[in-house]
Specification:
Layout (H helix, E strand, L loop, with lengths): L1 H40 L17 H4 L7 H32 L5 H13 L2 H14 L6 H26 L3 H8 L4 H30 L2 H6 L6 H8 L6 H32 L1
Length: about 270
């Protein structure tokens, strides 16, 4: 009797062992197809249009700035991303520590306000910011894009760093205070080193969101062109292969950073063990 009961269970388990990898493989294939297309067409001998494959060439990688204004747009995105990341990481980290470790009036409202930019549609957020800038008679440009990116990046930094702060034992700071450390010294020598992995993850997330953003940027950029805006305008005649080169290089760099971080954490855990 027990054998007849276990047989269907074994069949279901074997079926699940087959189905789960198949669906996982299909999901990865779905995610990687656009990336593979981008990498492949970075080697296309495009000519005037990069819609159809015309032949393999290394010229695009040898001259990534060959398309008009592509490197200018890329540098603009880098500048905006770095400034927005630096400001949002500092402000978001301080806000995350305050929300987790301290009790103050309006704390619940502050938590709610942090999540509002994340839950608001980007079209609404971009249009609202543009109306605000125009009402203040500020012409859209570089700094309006920076302000807009800082605003929505702070929320993601706060959420990421809050999780790290909540996992820390507050008794570590109390032990530092018992050893006559000032509040600043306890934070800088005890808390901050433990927060560095969370802060680094939040900074990388903020930079990727800022560099990749199009909707809010398009509302508040005016004549200022970022890399996503350049790609959108160029899409009608086929994205230049030089833009695919830059996109492929950014993907490779991000992949190297992730793999390097995983190898570093694995090596560190192995040394501790």
């Amino acid at each position: 009797m027990s054998g007849t009961v276990l047989a269907p269970r074994r069949r279901r388990r074997r079926l699940g062992e087959i189905i789960v990898p198949v669906f996982a493989g299909l999901a990865f294939l779905y995610l990687l197809v656009p990336i593979a297309y981008t990498v492949a067409f970075s080697f296309n001998d495009a000519g005037r249009s990069n819609i159809l494959w015309r032949g393999f060439t290394w010229d695009n990688w040898a001259n990534p700035c060959g398309a008009p204004r592509v490197c200018e747009a890329f540098v603009n995105s880098l500048q905006v991303g770095l400034i927005a990341t630096a400001v949002s990481t500092v402000l978001g980290t301080l806000l995350a520590v305050a929300l987790v470790r301290y009790r103050f009036r309006g704390r619940a409202l502050a938590n709610l306000m942090v999540f509002l930019p994340m839950s608001t549609p980007e079209v609404v957020l971009g249009a609202a910011l543009l109306a605000q800038f125009l009402s203040l008679r500020i012409n859209p440009g570089f700094w309006t894009v920076v302000v807009a990116h800082v605003m929505f990046c702070i929320s993601f930094v706060v959420v990421t760093v809050k999780a790290r702060v909540a996992s820390l034992d507050p008794r570590l700071e109390e032990a530092a205070a018992d050893l006559y450390a000032s509040p600043f010294a306890a934070f800088w020598r005890v808390t901050f080193p433990l927060l560095v992995p969370g802060i680094a993850a939040a900074a990388l997330l903020a930079f990727s969101l800022s560099f990749d953003d199009f909707i809010i940027t398009n509302f508040n950029s005016g004549n200022f062109t970022t890399f996503p805006k350049f790609v959108y305008v160029s899409a009608t005649r086929g994205i230049p292969p030089q833009a695919n080169v830059i996109g492929s290089a950014m993907f490779a760099l991000a992949l190297l950073l992730v793999v390097g971080a995983q190898v570093f954490s694995w090596t560190r855990a192995r040394r501790r063990a």
